[in-house]
Structures are given as structure tokens and as C-alpha cells.
Amino acid sequence: MAFSLGADGNGGISVQLIGNYFGSESDFNNLVSGLVASLGANIGTAQSYTDWTQLQVANAYGEPLVSSTPETPNTFFAKSLVTTDLLDNSSLTSWGTYLMQTAATSDINWFAQADLYGGAISSDFSATSSSFAHRDAFLVFQLYGSSYNNAPYPADGIDIINNMLTSITPNPTAACTFCPFSSFGVSSCLYWS
Known about the structure:
By secondary structure, this protein is of the alpha+beta class.
């Protein structure tokens, strides 16, 4: 499960809880009803799948898993942050303030995801027991800004994503609990896919 945030197009923030639940729809509704009620939200369309391939297509927002044509060009800049503990209130307030006051009205197409990895529960395995060395990861943030269809990447796009990261923690490399995770090997570079 992941929380995904993005600009809603009206100067605010859209929040989604995205993921897969393996069980009955009524069990799922019972499980999330407290969260949904506390947020004053509603449950969006939920689909039932009995086939693994259908589930993967749904996770790709309906896009085919194999395509004979090139994908739509996308220039993007991304940052990741791995934490081994909860964020404190000042970090959450700083991040929320930045998202609402700056990112929500920027001209970049962006999203931020916070994935729950497990922390101490998953750290029972050694760092060399799989290809993922961050076994003590609790939350993993993915911060992403893009420009579709070969449109020029917005001039402030890199700053928006970098500042999104530093609004969570001013110096992500200084503390062991806030470890930037370099998915692409270069810290500040635009990528095209």
C-alpha cells in the first residue's frame, strides 16, 4: 500500500491510498472504514480480479503489459528517501506546508508517494539475503516530477522536487534515519524514458 499525493489542479492536493488487497471486498471495507471515516473520504472504485495478469494491467492503469509501439516520451526528475523510523511532527508539517503552499501551484506534473516497507519486522533478514539491502526501511518516499510528450521540462522542476525532499529533512544525508536512495545512480540529472 502507498499514499500517493499530487496537485489536484485547483491549488490543492489530491491524496490516494493505492495498493492491492487479497481478500473479500467486505473484509477490505471493514479494514479501512476507520481510516476513511477519519479522513472524511470515500472509497473509490475497487475492482475484483481472479487473474494475476488482469491485476498487473490494472496496476498499470489499464496500459498493456507488452506494447508494439513506443511509449509516450516523458522527461522526469526523481528523488527517493528511505527512513527507518516515523517522521516527527515538524517534518510532516514542513512537508505538508511545502506541498500546499508551493508544489500544489507549480507548473510541473508531480507526485509524491510514501510506501510502508515494514521496518523492524523486515529487518529480521540480513542485508545480503536479497537484492534489496535496506531491510530496516520503514517508509520510502518517491518524489517525481515530469514533462510529458517531449514538452520542455519546467525551469523550476528540479528545484520543486529537491525542495520537496529538503522540506522533509533539511540534510537527508546527515542522519542515518534519512537516507537518500539513488535509484538511477546520479543525484541531479533529468531522465527521459
